[in-house]
């Protein structure tokens, strides 16, 4: 797999309903994913078998949050802003010195390709540091028809 940079970019201006999870360890991720699916259902998104856009958001949420919990520093805060045109996912942790580093030339069987996956699922992505927090973000469309290739 070729080199894919995770760009240093500020967070886009996101307006919409804010959903937030404070995470301290990987064991909390299944409950956070379930809560995200529940929120998607509450705002009218079909169940996971019928809606790939919602499942793509859940997958990106899981990848960025698990990366922060594995490679960052607690606390980890995962936020989804549900806007009219899509979702803004922002995951922050207290390890601003550890920039997101997509795996390069790794055997996919060994894992570690989450940043590549999120980049492909999103229409835009990036990261920045603010006041001692590293923020890794991605914008995802709320319908598969609205998806345009991510800018890298």
Write a structural description:
The chain is α+β, with helices and mostly antiparallel strands and 152 residues long. It has a single domain, classed as Histidine kinase-like ATPase, C-terminal domain (Heat Shock Protein 90). 28% of the residues lie in helices and 25% in strands. The protein has three helices and five strands; from the N terminus they run βααββαββ. The protein has helices at residues 29-42, 52-71, 114-121, and strands at residues 17-23, 76-82, 86-93, 124-130, 133-141. It has a five-stranded antiparallel sheet with strand order 1-2-3-5-4, with helices on one face. Strand 2 (76-82) and strand 3 (86-93) form a beta hairpin. Helix 1 runs antiparallel to helix 2 and helix 2 (52-71) packs antiparallel against helix 3 (114-121). Mean pLDDT is 84; it is low at 146-152. One of its GO terms (molecular function) is protein serine/threonine kinase activity. Keywords: Kinase, Serine/threonine-protein kinase, Transferase.
Lay out the secondary structure:
Elements: E1 17-23, H1 29-42, H2 52-71, E2 76-82, E3 86-93, H3 114-121, E4 124-130, E5 133-141
Antiparallel strand pairs: 1-2, 2-3, 3-5, 4-5
Helix pairs in contact: 1-2, 2-3
Keywords: Kinase, Serine/threonine-protein kinase, Transferase
Domain Histidine kinase/HSP90-like ATPase: 25-124
Organism: Blastococcus mobilis
């Amino acid at each position: 797999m070729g080199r894919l940079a995770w760009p240093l970019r500020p967070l886009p201006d996101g307006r919409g309903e804010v959903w937030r999870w404070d995470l301290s360890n990987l064991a909390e991720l299944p409950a956070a994913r379930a809560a995200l699916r529940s929120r998607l259902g509450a705002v009218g998104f079909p169940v996971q078998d019928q809606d790939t856009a919602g499942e793509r958001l859940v997958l990106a949420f899981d990848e960025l949050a698990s990366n922060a919990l594995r490679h960052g520093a607690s606390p980890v805060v995962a936020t989804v802003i549900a806007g009219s045109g899509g979702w803004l996912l922002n995951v922050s942790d207290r390890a601003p010195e550890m920039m997101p580093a997509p795996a390069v030339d790794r055997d996919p069987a060994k894992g570690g390709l989450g940043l590549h996956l999120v980049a492909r699922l999103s229409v835009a992505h990036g990261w920045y540091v603010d006041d001692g927090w590293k923020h890794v973000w991605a914008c995802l469309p709320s319908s598969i028809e609205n998806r345009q290739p991510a800018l890298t």
